[in-house]
């Protein structure tokens, strides 16, 4: 009988499961532990499962992430990675494809517009929004008008474009200076701008992490949900969990986890549980799996 290369070694001892600091968070964790087979665990990718790096093309899931997901996935209804990246890119950078034990994993890419599931191993995606091609053509000219912000660069995301300022001499100054002109460019072509941690993403409207999470929780008929994120784009998912808590006679208990970042205090202030980055998130997932 073959062994699972991603199974934890016998000598590994999972860390203690931390306690949420809020009553709704503690209620949600109790619900997840009581009926894990009816729980959806939803996770952002960059900054939550993967460390933020200067070049997003070099981002990879934390070295212990797949092991933790393999331990947890068979015990819950589903694990959903919800990301602004194309689904296929997140799968590749996460190392999720072809891993035994990850049958219950889906990746909702482009904020839910794309979907990959581990069972079929295929990505389902809509046709590109025509505004993306128009913005792609005009974006260099817009950025040239802000040539003093050396170090900004554009990431091609297929169904979206992202302008990064993390490498600029004044990253926050470049971010603030570009918000208005990029917003005007996006609006002219029917797109919106999604701000993040020193990144401005021009993408089609209609989907966000909150919409994607709500639809998936309902699709799975989940009785509880956990969402972990680190960035401004995760606020929509936080709002979705907060709304799910109030729906129906009892609501859907939801646990909000923040992969701690001083760059996004709004997220930390609304979280039920604050963890110190992807390493701590992975440890939490492993500890949760051990408790179920």
List keywords for this structure.
single chain; four-stranded antiparallel sheet; globular; disordered N terminus; 292 residues; 12 strands
Count the E strands: 12
Measured distance between first and last alpha carbons: 25 Å
Beta-strand percent range: 15-25%
The largest sheet, given as strand count, sense and whether it forms a barrel, is: 8 strands, mixed
Low-confidence stretches: 1-13
Range of helix content: 25-40%
Order of helices and strands: HEHEHEEEHEEHEEHEHEHEH
Mean pLDDT: 90
Taken from the alpha-carbon principal axes, the silhouette is globular
Radius of gyration from CA coordinates: 19 Å
Widest beta sheet: strand line-up: 5-4-3-2-1-10-11-12
Structural class of the secondary elements? alpha/beta
Count, helices? 9
Please tell me about this protein's structure:
The protein is an alpha/beta fold and 292 residues long. It is 35% helix and 18% strand. The chain has helices spanning 23-34, 65-72, 87-94, 130-144, 171-188, 209-219, 235-244, 265-270, 278-291; strands spanning 39-43, 78-82, 105-109, 114-117, 123-124, 153-156, 161-164, 192-196, 199-203, 224-229, 254-259, 273-275. Strands 5-4-3-2-1-10-11-12 form an 8-stranded mixed sheet, sandwiched between helices. Strands 6-7-9-8 form a 4-stranded antiparallel sheet, covered by helices on one side. The chain is globular and about 55 Å long. The model is unreliable at 1-13 (pLDDT under 50).
Set out the fold topology.
Layout: H1 23-34, E1 39-43, H2 65-72, E2 78-82, H3 87-94, E3 105-109, E4 114-117, E5 123-124, H4 130-144, E6 153-156, E7 161-164, H5 171-188, E8 192-196, E9 199-203, H6 209-219, E10 224-229, H7 235-244, E11 254-259, H8 265-270, E12 273-275, H9 278-291
Helix pairs in contact: 2-9, 4-5, 6-7
